[in-house]
Structure formats: C-alpha cells, structure tokens
Amino acid sequence: MSEQFNIIGGVSIAVLTVSDTRTMETDHSGELIRKLVSDQKGMEVVDYQIVKDEVVDIRGTLKKWLEEESIDAIIITGGTGIAKRDNSIESVEPFYEKEIQGFGELFRHLSFTEDIGTRAMLTRASAGTASDKAIFILPGSRGAVRLGMERLILPELHHIIYELKKHVHPRS
C-alpha cells in the first residue's frame, strides 16, 4: 500500500445517505461511514449529503460529485431494498463505466455466512467506477455499513483508487 499511497496521496470520499426519513441527527449509518473513514490513515470525508429516495435527487448529487476532481470515491447508503421506494441501484448503476461485480457478490456472501442468513439474497449492494471514481452502494442498516466498510471497502480502497488513477502507457 505504501507505493500506491505515495502515488495517489490521500483518498477523498463523498458520503450520500438515501432516505425518506433520516436527518443529520438520525442518520446513524452515514455517521458510521464518516467515523470509519476518519479512523483511517490517508482518507477523509470531503462531502456528506442526505437526499430523499427519489431518482432525480440521487442522480443530481451523483452528477455533481462525478464532476468534482477532488473526490476519489463515493459511498452511498440506503435505498437498496426491493420495495418500490428503493431507488439507489436504479439511479446509480446507469452511470457505471465498469461494474465491480465482486463487491456485491462478496457482500452477499459475507452477509449470508456471518450475519443474516438467507435474507442476504435480497441484498442489492453494488459497486462500479465512473469518471475515475469508485462508487459503492450499501444497504442502510448499520450492520450492513459496518460489514461493507470494514471487510470490503476500507481494506481495498487505496488499491482501487490507485488502479483508477495510474497512467496506462501504450504498448510499443
């Protein structure tokens, strides 16, 4: 990680909570993401928003952040269920230039084996890249956030950003 960290520097993260009911005071999942990031060396949260579970609101925030050169990663929590009001996946996945399929697969596997059993099949955690940024979509529960952040995102985020930012030299 040290070589990668030297090349990319710190990792700047934007956090988006998607919820029709959460406020800054009651957004425990967004708070947990911010705390876990702040505990990491070389990572910081540079923006944090809460939006209603509306496609236009989610996409509006995402578009703004994708244009911000200073943001390296976007972590979204909430709106991932199968109810009609759950719109995070449908709002964000069309922006992916590349999907990171292993993230959702590993998240569901860990959820099944370590946490919620067969209910894991309803988990629509997702990740991808767009505009040289990593995007992660996590369910809204604190348990899901902790699992995704501690077991998957934080251990690999420097490497993911390194891969997105490194220069590819044309073959001779």
Number of helices: 6
**CATH fold naming:** Molybdenum Cofactor Biosythetic Enzyme, Chain A
Strand content: 15-25%
CATH architecture: 3-Layer(aba) Sandwich
Strand order of the largest sheet: 2-1-3-6-5-4
Please identify which CATH superfamily we are dealing with. Answer: MoaB/Mog-like domain
Rg over C-alpha atoms, rounded to the nearest angstrom: 16 Å
Largest sheet report: 6 strands, mixed
Helix content: 40-55%
Please tell me what the overall shape is: globular
What is the count of distinct domains? 1
Rounded mean pLDDT is: 91
CATH class category name = Alpha Beta
- Please provide the ordered H/E string of secondary-structure elements: HEHEHEHEHEEH
Descriptive notes:
- The protein has 172 residues and is α/β, with parallel strands linked by helices.
- The chain contains 6 helices and 6 strands; from the N terminus they run αβαβαβαβαββα.
- The protein has a single domain (9-164), classed as Molybdenum Cofactor Biosythetic Enzyme, Chain A (3-Layer(aba) Sandwich).
- 44% of the residues lie in helices and 20% in strands.
- Helix 2 (28-38) links the parallel strand 1 and strand 2.
- Helix 1 packs across helix 6 and helix 5 (101-116) packs antiparallel against helix 6 (142-165).
- The longest helix has 24 residues, at 142-165.
- It is globular.
- It starts with a helix and ends in a 7-residue tail after the last helix.
- The model has no long low-confidence stretch (mean pLDDT 91).
